Amino acid sequence: MRTRTWWMIFMAMVLSGCVAIGFSHYDDIYGPQHVQVRDVGPSNGEGAGYLQLVKPVLEQRCVVCHGCYDAPCQLKLSSPEGVDRGLSKERVYNGTRLLAQSPSRLLFDADNTQQWRDKGFTPVLNERHQSEQANLAGSVLYNSLLLKMSHPFPEQGVLGNEFDFSLDRQQSCPSMDEFASLAKTKPHAGMPYGLPAISHSEFKQLETWLKQGAKMAQVAPPTPQELQQVERWEQFLNQHELKYQLAARYIYEHWYLAHIYFPKVNASSSPNFFKLVRSKTPPGKPIELISTRRPYDDPGVSRVYYRLMHDRSSILAKTHMPLALTDHKMSRLYSQFIKPDYQVEKLPSYEPKVASNPFKVFSVIPVKSKYQFMLDEAELIIKGYIKGPVCRGQIALNVINDQFWVAFIDPEKNSVPAVSDLLLQHEDDLALPAAEQSNVLPLPSWIKYANRQHEYIRAKTKLANELLADGKLLTTDLIWQGDGHNDNAALTVFRHFDSATVVKGFVGQAPKTMWLLDYALFERIHYLLVAGFDVYGNIGHQLITRLYMDFLRLEGEQNFINLLPQDERQEVKNHWYRRSHISLSEFINRKTLLAAPTGIEYVTDDPKTELYEKIKTALNPVLSKRYDHTSESSVLAQLNNLPHKAINVLPQVSFILQRQQNGAHKAFTLLHHNAHYNISSLLNEDGQRAYEEDTATLVPGFIGDYPEAIWYLADEQNTQAFVTQLKAVESEEQYQDVTAKFAIRRTHPQFWQYSDLLHQVAKKYRGVEYGLFDYNRLENR
Prior knowledge:
Blueprint: H1 2-21, H2 26-30, H3 45-63, H4 80-85, H5 113-118, H6 132-137, H7 140-150, H8 176-185, H9 200-211, H10 224-237, H11 242-255, E1 259-261, E2 274-279, E3 305-310, E4 322-324, H12 327-338, H13 352-355, H14 358-361, H15 367-376, H16 378-387, H17 394-397, E5 403-408, H18 411-414, H19 417-425, H20 442-467, E6 491-495, E7 500-504, E8 513-517, H21 519-531, H22 539-561, H23 566-576, H24 584-589, H25 607-619, H26 644-648, E9 653-659, E10 665-673, E11 695-700, E12 709-713, H27 716-727, H28 732-742, H29 751-766
Parallel strand pairs: 1-4, 5-8, 9-12
Antiparallel strand pairs: 2-3, 5-6, 6-7, 9-10, 10-11
Helix pairs in contact: 1-7, 3-9, 12-15, 16-21, 20-22, 21-22, 27-28
Protein name: 9-hexadecenoic acid cis-trans isomerase
GO molecular function, one term: isomerase activity
Transmembrane segments: 7-26
């Protein structure tokens, strides 16, 4: 075995040297570059080989870092189209660009590989003369794998400074003409980057595929039963009456990120997933995608059709938002949008200042209908904030606390005529920054929207004081209780510094803050962070989106605070915003405390904690217990009470696999919640950290899609030792001692075997919610 390994390394070095000599003469040696046709049918021998032998290797070893918007070099290996498209030196996430850049969404912003070449993408596969030698020598993918094989990876330990794992690190994204220089200056840059090389058998599998021209096939088409459901739903969404057209537009603008499936059709197998898209063509004809920056931008056609497009790419946990469509769901939509007595005389405009404002566009649809629709799938809607393009990076996420609970105002109480009239009267004040599209000057915009928000809050507070004057309605009865069956009524949001997660239930210890969302607030957050956010927008657009979200967070927190005794409200708010300067938080939060008394009777001297318990009690019949942090009674439960010095050195998301006596594995997630004196500071988050208030929560299963640490506990004795040593950690050096004994580090010689095990266990825990984890945030400690 050792002889074969050294022989591979020797051959890799020889081939790397030979290839380097010819880089500047590629056209002379292999002919001019031009796009190749690689698509073959799944029943074709090469196509079947790709699906059975190559695709699994790409998924388990490559897609875990190269899957979506935030993949290095925009290299998206999760579909044949992405593999063929290749690399780009242009960053999607760029918080400094002065002008918006052209979108580069796979399937939407180019129709074929040549168009991607015209947009500056360079291939990772050979596009010159097709021969076995050229297909290897001319492939960035192959040479990246070979570079890793030719430079042995250290077994265990922490990698040196030559490895940079920061999300904003400099990226090379080389073409083949540039690869020799990269290999010489950065010999450690082989793929998988900062992880062990793939196995010899996996390497040979990819090598054989590349030699033969890298032919690729699409996954099998949906089943006839699924296609029948697609036809039913497309017919429902595309009826001629204006009422249906307006309802379909509203539904699409809230569901377009979802992975739709039909559970009753695939009860015993993995379902196919579909994306709701806008098409120029009606049901029954091939989909012609309408490509716009935002889901509500002018489609450029007289009639939009809403179609279900089969999603053929690998499912990634970080973007996976499953939505089940059933007969009951269709009946529910009919009762919400079609049955109510309202008239649609004319379809609304797609002009930006109108289309970006849902209170203008959908003003004729009853508030209760829209709000119930959002509440029915509240976790999905909020996942859009978390798993859509906006929530990537610390600047985007430092607008929220690390752990908070979310509940909702009851739609019966939030859709009374006075509330509906308020929204109509202040629809201009409710306008969102996306009205100015993707190139924005932030300071003038912030002042304008701050003033508008203040006017709306002033009017809302005045109305609430009138409606709640006697305090009888200002109780937990004001909160939506899931209609007695819907577990979307209680949610928890976790921020993991530069990523985030939302789950059902009130998870973890009582949080610092809580949001209580009403319809207008819920809707605005969606149109701010999802429908209206352009990840390709300029710095002004991204900055004003971040600043505006301060207003909405404050409003959600204020709704909760108003349930407390009057003499406690200001004190709680002051604690949440300790050490804050006269800033936007104080600017927008002034004069928003209700004069109306609470109708809740408090009996302790800690009314906030008491209110948390009262809300939990009210929602208990529908409260999801899936991630109940108190359910684990073993020694691991001690991790819920770690000393703050130990918590301080923990990464944000740690996955724990605990081997049981029967050989099976339990999974846990250990979450580190950063505490802050306040989160009203845009650029000085470190200066607002309250380190001694940090907390940690251990939950069963998996929360988070970007593991930063992976721990493996082989038995009960191993588990006890891990907990004992982790509790005693007070420094980085001590933490690294623990990782050396219990962690599956980046350098672990069996890293990929443990990665496979992690995904196998995750499939059992997550079911239809399963997707590949992303290793771009895996720590090097």
